[in-house]
Amino acid sequence: MTVPFINFPLGSSVRIEDVTHTFMSREQAGYVFRSEVDGRTVTHGSGEIASLYFADKFVIPRQVHPSLPAGVRENLRRSLVEFPDHRQAEAERRLDYVMAIDGLEDRRRGGDRTLFRRNEQRYASVARAVASMRRRKATTGAALLDPAARRELKAEATPSAFTLRDWMRRWERSGREPSALVRLDDRKGRKPNELAPALVDLLTDAVRTFYLKEERPTVRMLHEYVAGLVQRHNRETGDRLTPLTETALHRFVTGRFGARELAEARLGKRKGTMRFAAKRRRGSPNRACEVIEIDHVLLDATVIRDRGGEPLETDEGAPRCKRGIAGRPWLTLAICARTRCVVGWSISLDPPSYVSVMLCLRSMLSAKPDVTVNGRVVANPVFGLPKVLRLDNGKEFHSLALKAAAAKLGFELLYCPRRSPWEKGRVERFFGEVQRNFATMPGRTFGSPERRGDYRPHDRARMTMGELRATFAIWVAAYYHQRNHRGLFHRTPMEVWLELSPLGVDMPPSARDAVSATALPLLKPIQDTGIEYLDLHWDSEALERLRDRHGRKRKWRCALDPLDLTELRVWDDTVEPNVEIRVPCTDLDLIPGLDLDMWKRVKNRSKERTPEAERVRRETLADARVELFETAARDDRSGKRLSKPKQKFAAGARQARDPEAPPRPEETRGAAPLAALSGAVAAGAVAPVGSVATRTQYYD
Fold first, then answer.
1. Residue 284 in contact with residue 418, Cβ under 8 Å?
2. Secondary structure letter of residue 528 according to DSSP
3. Which position has the higher pLDDT, 279 or 274?
4. Cα separation of 96 and 99, whole Å?
5. Can you tell me whether residue 44 is helix, strand or coil?
6. Topology given in CATH for the domain delimited by 6-59
7. In sequence order, which residues have a C-beta less than 8 Å from that of residue 497 and are 6 or more positions away?
8. Mean of the pLDDT values across residues 672-700?
9. How is residue 480 annotated by DSSP?
10. Backbone torsions φ then ψ of 523, nearest 5 degrees
11. Which of 452-456, 466-470, 642-646, 663-667 is predicted with the least confidence, judged by mean pLDDT?
12. pLDDT band at 674 (very low <50, low <70, confident <90, very high)
């Protein structure tokens, strides 16, 4: 199997099995390293490096430049979520500017020499472009912003070229840490005087009613008009507002209103749009994983609940159409824009959320297992970290946690304009192929009642969620990746991937970063019972030592995997480098079979049974957990239609009743329905024993 090279800078200091080496060169035989212990030179192939990396025996330590100011080095000890909200917002604003330059420089290093050169004019042009984009967000992203944030975003000033250059130096010398962009002026002297709110409102109304016209009045005319309004306002209200000078008024207009808004109002809608519309066609990426598109789709398929062989406790004459139906699953998928290979995916019954995006990111950074079809082993060596992640404006893509993960892992988030699906056409085209080819299975919904006709998906559904995941993995590796693609000049995606593999793909410094960077960030103190979150506790001897040394008031940076509540990651930032501490949960009797979403439902049920102004007791939590499991299990056996959250509790109850049950279908079996999906891939395949074909007798 051909494994792609993992890219990292020449001369990097790396640790291979706890021994420090220096990367000297990359030759045809592999990577050449020099040991800093005995000076010997060793060579490792790409496959060996990938194996060491995923085994967490190959790490690239992050290095901080010694010339950084002391305040910046102090901020690097803290996570971005530890700072106040207004400082987080300013760091997020600066992050947009530096990541825009990062994206341009990555593309320039890839061969496009006309994009960006570091000089004053280029810095200024990037600053204007990003500032204009952020101001447009106040109108195009109105559904995602509250009115106060929208007004603040519109009034945002454009940084100068030298300011942007200083931000970029901080960003690079800190190892691309978001905390390096936090402002250092929290202890400076008094802030400059701001304009009175009444004067700001008056100036804004005057600009909109007098200046933003196609007659194009000058700033001097606007100044005279505003002076008359201020005088009349002072006479009527008794205020003592002072009108701005002509220069200050010009700065107010250009700072408060975007250049595109001014052009469209004074030059006309058509001319203003043409002035700022993109004139250059977007070039195609040159490397694998350089640009990755991600999106969600509701599959045209119906899946059943995996009962594990338990019969229904219903009469023979009861309606059968809703027995054991789980629903329509959601697919979250990331596709490489250059090779059209599926880099990562996640299938779940839950609607799109931050969890589904994080699962897809983890799949992108994980090694894919080989699949077997008709006795033939098909490899799927597709993984890598994107340089640009292209996505739409869904709420799950605008979270601060995702932006922090992108900054930590080192890729850029590129948001497409609203209602412009063609901006990520590769993933949209793939979804069309999934609905046409993969979803042609028993239980297909056809997308609309008109196309479905008299077909009844609930009566025909035969596949469980585990088998659907296993089937999709085989379909991607053995069918889609091996099929000629018109956009690749009738080559297969796997042929293009193997052709570009010698150029290498980027990966995080450590395989653990894929989990820690995508986990839920928290900021919690250490109490007598350890760290508490949602009435769950995590404690260990290491936490007790931190609490005794630093007290109970200090808050620590933590990360919780929403799918695994048994362990909490805590970082000790009092030492350099930071030490990661894995803390076990002390409430293990409350969380078996639960993820974070299920535990929140247990906690809400407990609150309903607790009087106001009283703390939820541990016994109430245990009773609520048992009640939810028993209710879901009873409804499951009776054949009732379960909601998607209740299906999770029903599955947990079945596992608790039969702890010796075999593993899930995706872990032990191939998918029998492949014979109905693609004759080219699964021709002659025999349904394995114990597949869904032998369990559906209870649903027919």
1. no
2. T
3. 274
4. 5
5. strand
6. SH3 type barrels. (2.30.30)
7. 4, 288, 336, 339, 341, 381, 382, 481
8. 32
9. I
10. -135, 105
11. 663-667
12. very low
Residue 81: name the closest of 677, 425, 515, 560 by CA: 560
Q: Give me the mean pLDDT over the 29-48 stretch.
A: 87
Q: CA 631, CA 628: separation in Å to the nearest integer? A: 5
Average predicted confidence (pLDDT) for the chain: 80
Contact between 332 and 294 (Cβ < 8 Å): yes
Joined tokens for residue 562: 């929403």
**Nearest Cα residue to 346 out of 468, 440, 435:** 468
Class of domain 291-506: alpha beta
| Across 308-329, average pLDDT | 54
Low-confidence winner among 8-12, 358-362, 377-381, 634-638 (lowest mean pLDDT): 8-12
Tell how strand 531-533 and strand 6-7 pair up: unpaired
What pairs with residue 22 in β-bridges? 13, 34
From residue 237, alpha-carbon distances to 233, 242, 610 in Å are 6, 14, 54
Question: What is the total residue count of the chain?
Answer: 700
CA 557, CA 178: separation in Å to the nearest integer?
14
Does this model's pTM top 0.85? My answer is no
Q: For residues 372 and 374, give the distance between their C-alpha atoms in angstroms, rounded to a whole number.
A: 7
Euclidean distance between CA atoms 194 and 252, whole angstroms: 12
DSSP structure class, residue 209 = I
d(CA 593, CA 563): 10
Neighbouring CB atoms inside 10 A of 14's CB total 19
- Tally Cβ neighbours within 10 Å of residue 422: 8
DSSP letter string, 552-603: SS-EEEEEEETTEEEEEEEEETTSSS-EEEEEEBS-TTT-TT--HHHHHHHH
The tokens describing 492, both together, are 């297969």
Structure-token pair, residue 440: 């042609």
Nearest-angstrom CA–CA distance, 450 and 593: 40
Work out the angle at residue 384's Cα, subtended by the Cα atoms of residues 379 and 386, and round it to the nearest 5 degrees. 145
Edge to edge, the sheet with strand 291-298 lists: 342-348, 330-336, 291-298, 388-391, 412-415
- Burial code (b: 16+ CB inside 10 Å, e: under 16) for 436-463 equals eebbebbbbbeeeeeeeeeeebbbebbb
Among candidates 637, 182, 688, which has minimal Cα distance to 466? Answer: 688
231: enclosing H helix or E strand: helix 219-237
> What is the fold, at CATH topology level, of the domain defined by 520-584?
OB fold (Dihydrolipoamide Acetyltransferase, E2P) (2.40.50)
* DSSP secondary structure, 605-644, as one string: HHHHTS-TTSPPPHHHHHHHHHHHHHHHHHHHHHTPPPPH
- The domains of the chain are located at 6-59, 70-181, 197-276, 291-506, 520-584, 596-657
Q: Which residue has the tokens 């048994």?
A: 566
Which residues, 6+ apart, have CB-to-CB distance to 590 below 8 Å? 536, 599, 602, 618, 621, 622, 625
Whether 478 contacts 373, CB under 8 Å: yes
Task: Judge contact between 45 and 30, C-beta under 8 A.
Answer: yes
Cα-flanking dihedrals φ and ψ of residue 241, to 5°? -75, 140
Query: Which pair of tokens denotes residue 438?
Result: 């993969």
